[in-house]
Write a structure and sequence with these properties.
Layout lengths: L1 E5 L2 E5 L6 E5 L7 E5 L4 E5 L7 E5 L5 E5 L2
Antiparallel strand pairs: 1-2, 2-3, 4-5, 5-6, 6-7
């Protein structure tokens, strides 16, 4: 699995079968991405001052936590 920021979204590409999935950021764009394959979660940091961090479950993209402040 490969993931990268793509505008206001994160694109996931499965290199085994070339399938693609897109997570659209609920915040103000995408500044940083971090992932844990062991836990099947990823985090997206939005752009701007005092950004929120969205922690999401993969592959259903459910937001499990929003960190602010």
């Amino acid at each position: 699995m490969i993931c990268f920021a793509c505008g206001n979204a994160v694109k996931f590409i499965n290199d085994a079968d070339n399938s693609e999935m897109v997570f659209h950021s609920p915040g103000n764009g995408v500044q940083l991405i971090s992932a844990s394959a062991a836990l099947s979660i990823f985090a997206v940091v939005e752009n701007g001052v005092n950004p929120r961090i969205f922690v999401c479950r993969y592959p259903d993209f459910e937001i499990i936590s929003v960190l602010e402040g």
